[in-house]
Every structure is written in C-alpha cells, then in structure tokens.
Design brief:
There is one protein chain. This protein is α+β, with helices and mostly antiparallel strands and 347 residues long. The protein has ten helices and 13 strands. It has an eight-stranded antiparallel sheet, sandwiched between helices. Helix 1 (3-18) packs antiparallel against helix 10 (325-346).
Length: 347
C-alpha cells in the first residue's frame, strides 16, 4: 500500500468520526509526493498560523534597517499605548523581539483569564455582528485583564501591538503590507485579511468552523483576530508560503534561524521560538521518539502549517473547530509516521 493510500485510509476514518463536520482539509508535499484530502480549493480561516506572516513582515523591516528586534516598542507607538498592558516598570524596555517571542509581559486577550465580565471568546459568540478594531482589542485587555508579567505568555495582544508597530513605521495599513510584501509577490491570490481586504481571485464563502459547538464562520465578530491570525487562505497558498519562507524568498537564512530558534516551551510537545513553533512528538508519547521536529504554527481552529526539514515536506491542514485539536495532531503524527516509513523504504 502506498503512502497516499495509507493517508487516505487514515483520513477516511477521521472523516467518519467527525460526522456532519465532513472531511478535514489536508495537503502534504515533498519530493515525489503531492497529496491532498478534502476540498483543496476551499478558503479557510487560518487562525494563529497568521502569526508567521506577521513575524515575516517584522523581519523584513529589520533586514531593511527600519528597526531591530532590540528596539523598544514604546518609541514606535503613540504615547500611552502600552499603559495598562505592561507592568509600568517594564514599559520602557519591552522590545519588538520580546513581543514576537511572547515575552513582552502582555496578557492574551483571546484566551487569557479576565478580571471581570465575559471573556472575549464569549463576547464573540454573544455578539456575532460586532466588528472589533485593534484599539478595541487593546482596550479589552486593559479593562478586563492584568499584565502577564515576566517570562513567556502566549499573547495575541502582543501581536496586535506588532501590527500597530508595522503600520506606524511604514505608514501602511497592516492588510496592505500583507498583500504588498507577501501575498502578491508569492501569487497567493486566494489569501486576504478577513473583513479588511479582498483576495485577488475574488471573494467566496469560506470553510465553516466552530467555536465550541457554535458555527461562527460568518460572524463579523471574528474580526477579533487581526495581526495575530485574521487571515483567510487555502491549502495551496499556505504551502506556497511555507516553501517561500524556507526557500529564502521572504527573509534571509539568518532571520529564519532567529525566528525558529527555540526559546520557550508553549506546552508539552510544542515549543516556541520568535514567532514560529517547533513540534516535539516524543513529548506526546515516548514511542514517537525519532520523528522529525517540524517548524511552523498551529491555530485554535485545528489549523496547521509546518515544514519538516528531514523529509523536505510541507504540511498544511484545517480541521475547522476549537474542539478538533486532538484529531488534528493525531493526523500530524500519522503524516510524519508515514513520511518516515516511505523514507525508509526508498532508502
């Protein structure tokens, strides 16, 4: 049985277990393999995979000399922007690199704890017609959260601040930067920033997704994801982005090394660099020791974009829901296991 047949069999089983959710979207490309499952052309909300394009934009400006990763953020934003988001004693010292690595001491507006009232996710579900601006998101964190303090705290709020830094330094809107510096040069014609721009290929419905048990793909309140993950894309566009990123088309080799170098543990099996994750499957289960450690990012909707350097494989997936993360990771493990088996057979 070929690798394509084995992956199809696995995903057929996954699809049956998902019931009315239907088939996940999966794409794997490596030398001698082009595998897709589900609707390969349907655009989907990529969630926090979008942090990688944000990190790319930051590194492009670092390479151009606009600022460095050691540049304090406070001097690149309007006065008072960091007030209430960062502990007062740290405001002057938080750098661009700190925010990229989630070490800026900023709470996470999306999934972090609140001091009062409903969480942001609860508000997104309760107020589906609300449009969230970056200022709204920062105000939510100031009003309903406390600064995270020193150390690693995964923070969508920090990436909103990075989006604002990019806008203030360049004089361009964040979505314009995405199109001008990433989507257009790479021919990512189906990619855009949801509720902020349109794809070159033309707007069309996106894949359904659920927040808990609530179908939310048409909610305007999903505008709460911006520079931290508000992009809609396709399997092909994200695979193209991954190839360009690891092929030196977007940032230099040194910049990519800085982004991928592990600094912190996000949670068991998932480690974090400066805007990019690394998966360590052996931490999930000891028998997975020996599998590659792909780099990329996941999103809360069961979305994945990873590059496996051992097998020169680009893996993109969308499982379309906050309750689908376990299934999505089991499929990642299956893909890597099959790639290893195929490499052994061919070797």
């Amino acid at each position: 049985m070929s690798i394509t047949e084995r992956l199809t069999r696995h995903l057929d089983t996954v699809t049956r277990k998902r019931g009315n959710r239907g088939a996940p979207q999966v794409h794997v490309s490596s030398p001698g393999l082009e595998f897709s499952y589900g609707d390969a052309t349907l655009p989907f909300h990529i969630a926090s995979i979008g942090k990688v394009p944000t990190a790319v934009l930051v590194m492009q400006l670092v390479e151009s000399g606009a600022f460095s990763l050691e540049t304090p953020v406070v001097g690149m934003l309007p006065a008072g922007t960091l007030d209430g988001l960062v502990e007062p004693a740290r405001i002057a010292s938080v750098t661009v690199g700190d925010l990229l690595a989630h070490e800026g001491g900023v709470a996470d507006y999306f999934e972090g704890p609140v001091t009062s009232g409903a969480t942001l996710l609860e508000r997104v579900i309760a107020e589906p017609g609300r449009f969230w601006t970056p200022a709204d998101l920062l105000d939510f964190s100031r009003t309903h959260q406390r600064p995270a303090g020193p150390g690693f705290t995964y923070s969508d709020t920090g990436y909103v601040l990075l989006g604002l830094v990019l806008e203030h330094v360049t004089g361009r809107a964040f979505h314009e930067l995405l199109h001008e510096r990433v989507f257009t040069p790479l021919g990512m014609d189906d990619s855009y920033l949801l509720y902020r721009s349109e794809p070159v290929a033309g707007a069309r419905p996106i894949a359904t997704f659920t927040l808990g048990n609530v179908e939310a793909s048409t909610f305007r309140s999903v505008s709460c994801d911006w520079a931290g993950g508000g992009i809609v894309s396709t399997l092909a566009d994200l695979a193209r982005f991954s190839r360009a990123l690891h092929g030196g088309e977007l940032v230099s080799e040194a910049s990519l090394a800085r982004l991928t170098a592990v600094r912190n543990r996000f949670r068991r099996g998932i480690h974090y660099g400066t805007g990019i994750m690394e998966l360590r499957f052996e931490e999930f289960f000891f028998l997975l020791r020996g599998l590659p450690r792909p780099t990329g990012h996941i999103g809360v909707l069961g979305t994945h974009m990873f590059y496996d350097a051992v097998n020169d494989a680009h893996i993109v997936m969308n499982f379309g829901g906050t309750t689908e993360m376990v299934r999505s990771f089991r499929t990642m493990i299956q893909i890597e296991t099959e790639l290893r088996r195929a490499a052994r057979v061919s070797g």
